[in-house]
Amino acid sequence: MKDDRRHPMRDSHQDREAANKTPGTPQTRAPAYKLAYDDFDFMCRDDLRPVRLQLELLKPELLMQEYGVESTIVLFGGARIPEPSKKDSARTKTLADLSKYYDEAREFARLMTEVSKQNGHKENVIVTGGGPGVMEAGNRGAADAGGVSIGLNIVLPHEQVPNEYVTPDLCFNFHYFAIRKMHFLMRAEAVVIFPGGFGTMDELFESLTLIQTGRMKRVPILLFGRDFWEKIINWEALADAGTISAEDLELFRFVETAAEAVEAIKAWEGKGDARSTLPGR
User: Fold this and answer.
1) What gap in Å lies between CA 98 and CA 100, rounded to an integer?
2) Which tens digit of pLDDT belongs to each residue from 153-169?
3) Cβ count near 127 (within 10 Å)
4) Is 147 exposed, middle or buried (0-12, 13-18, 19+ CB in 10 A)?
5) How far apart are CA 49 and CA 26, in angstroms?
6) pLDDT for 78-96, tens place per residue?
7) What is the pLDDT of residue 5?
8) Closest C-alpha among 99, 98, 107 to residue 75
9) Long-range contacts: 42-46, Cβ < 8 Å, 24+?
10) Lower Cβ count inside 10 Å, N or C end of the chain?
């Protein structure tokens, strides 16, 4: 490990190694004797939750800074949507029909990554949740272009591993949904959303709410599949009821193809009020 410290004191790695070689005695084997930062039981105490929250914010932030990532294109969508060659395994006909969006997500990510490669993977890097379905398609499209992509995985009660197309150095794992959500949007230059379930709905409405309330600068929010979205959400009814403003319907637009989405991002002129962004940007 390169020693680039700017002070003469021993570093934490050295002391951790030395502490682990301490002769075993009742005193050194006691939990109280462990170095605090090397004591996993201590780190997992409820009292240490603020520290864990900070660590989950810091680790991806620092590693992405070191990698040079400055902005991202966020890709949300259903984990259950199969690629077309496997649509026969889909649990419903509707899900099988939605498999076309796997290919659109893959192509969209490929096209955007071709652009990102030109700036050394600093701007407009594809970021997904790192899982299967549409998320896999996004990371796969970036790999098709010979580029990099980010995966923000999260520990779930059932087994989950990152898809094989996430760039390993940009593959992160989270315990806290809230911190994961911050990392999705802190660098976002566009939010692209494919058909999906509860998680996708959550991500869509959180993005819309942050922009609607001025907590995040306005960026393109593109919804793939007008038929899907208008079938499950009556947008006009929300405006007619007065629970949102008619102008809020302009916060997003529908697209159908990868090429159309790329053109929409290229044509974006920052129409929204950019007075505020997410904290930490």
Assistant:
1) 5
2) 999 988 678 999 999 99
3) 29
4) buried
5) 29
6) 999 999 999 998 999 999 9
7) 63
8) 107
9) none
10) N
